[in-house]
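Revision sheet: structure tokens.
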Amino acid sequence: MSTSFQQENLAKALYSVLADKLSSLQAQNGELTIVVHADDICTVSETLRDNPVLGFDTLIDLCGIDYSTYGDTLSAKNSLRGKRFAAIYHLLSVNLNHRLRVRVLAENNDIPVIDSVTEIWPAANWFEREAFDLYGIVFSGHPDLRRILTDYGFIGNPFRKDFPLTGYVEMRYDAEQKRVIYQPVSIEPREITPHVIREEHYGDSES
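Predicted:
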């Protein structure tokens, strides 16, 4: 069975099974991406896992994303314009040998909240904690939602587009206190633009 034929069959099955819960479906670079509303993620996830035609038994990855600098690239016809944060789910059906990407945008840009899918795919546990840590996405119903990569007492979410490259604090060892301390970052923010000089006809093939 060709990849394109298998993808076409999967797309038809998704339209048929998910019906009105499917906001959009896109085929690009040999992969399918569907968009579902945040309120429907748990219901859709259960269907994707349990429906025998779909059979997505494995969550390969889950990551956060900040769309704040993407402009209007998200389709306006699906009422997704203006949404800043999303969770992206990468699913695999081991038995049926097909993959799917699911995009869920949080409704609130100030406090992004998406329901946890840990009860559906337990592997989501650490992935959701990572997205919470780096993007500040709150996964409602997660059994132990706390930071996983940043240090204790870390302020902010370092993968957000508005987080400064230098951060807000720095740490150093204080000889008098004999311990590591935090202090305001001492590096002044600056924009570094590399200056590149090319020789004339650089890269041209020799005749």
